[in-house]
Amino acid sequence: MRVGVGAATPPRVLTIAGSDSGGGAGLQADLRTLFACGVHGMTAVTAVTVQNSLGVSGFTEIPAEVVAAQIEAVATDIGIGATKTGMLASAAIIEAVAGAVDRVDVGPFVVDPVAASMHGHQLLADDALEALRTLLFPRATLVTPNLDEVRLITGIEVRSRADQRKAAEALHAYGSEWVLVKGGHLWDDPECLDVLFDGSEFVEFLGPRYDVENTHGSGDTLASAICSRLVRGESVPEAVRFGKDFVVRSVAASYPLGGGVGPVSPLWRLPDAEG
Ligand SMILES: Nc1ncnc2c1ncn2[C@@H]1O[C@H](COP(=O)(O)OP(=O)(O)O)[C@@H](O)[C@H]1O
Ligand SMILES: Cc1ncc(COP(=O)(O)OP(=O)(O)O)c(N)n1
User: What does DSSP assign to residue 55?
Assistant: First the structure.
């Protein structure tokens, strides 16, 4: 019996990201989220991290030209409806990604400027920050920094919701269409506010702050869920609304793993997730 003939091809999203051997964050979190959102996920691997729930003990970069070749291989055959970036590791890889983005159609382009793991291990070289600002942000549909990344990129120390708005204005000046300043690290805030800005208007996404320990991969899950809607033609505010709701439910469904910090989980979205 032949099966699958004539089945519709799902929307396709590319993640340009590092591998997390523990499966909690990075491209593993992206693929898991995209699958749960009904999207075919594709990968351009930038680095292989040696990582578990306790942290990152090292990583090896993929040569920049191989990163660009992965992007072009999937763009020219399969087609890319939307793209997100995660760990990019070096200025050379950022330059290669910017070049590839100019050569092929990557659709709406979401830049999650991953700089360090939640345990503090550096995942982006110091000299790559300028490449992020000048080469990637001007090409981005949306940039989604957490508050540590905001400080590294702009020098702004965010201590309040008002500071989140100031940071969004400073980040928008680097040339992206939209900026989403995530508030998960505003530890004194009883709720989690994410602030979206397009250069003229602010849109606020307020959610609960769950008292959970297992939040590994929350930023990846949010950005991937946003891409799963941008690829279907939704506007950025619509896609962020979906992404915020998706990540809140995934934080609520997080689970312990190993001896350290476990991952947030998109499994809540799948029918019969218990198997
Ligand atoms: N404890 C939490 N409860 C609910 N939502 C959270 C929690 N921590 C983070 N979030 C949400 O998860 C997303 C990622 O947040 P954040 O922690 O700021 O970035 P990152 O994961 O990149 O460090 C945001 O939408 C944020 O509001
Ligand atoms: C390969 C890789 N990519 C990204 C991260 C960052 O994950 P985490 O520290 O959990 O932060 P968010 O996903 O919440 O932004 C990583 N550790 N490894």
Answer: E
**Cβ of 118 below 6 Å from ligand 2:** yes
CA-based nearest residue to 110, from 264, 236, 238: 236
User: pTM, whole model, 2 decimals?
Assistant: 0.98
ipTM greater than 0.90: yes
Assess whether the C-beta atom of 184 lies below 6 angstroms from ligand 1.
yes
- CA-closest candidate to residue 87, choices 55, 125, 120, 52: 125
Q: What's the average pLDDT block by block, 10 residues per block, for the chain (275 residues)?
A: 86 98 98 98 98 97 98 98 98 98 98 94 95 98 98 97 98 98 97 98 98 98 98 98 98 98 96 71
* Ligand in closest contact with the CA of 23: 2
What is the 3-state secondary structure of 106-126? CCCEEECCCCECCCCCECECH
Can you count the helices (H) and strands (E) in the chain? 8, 9
- The DSSP call for residue 99 is H
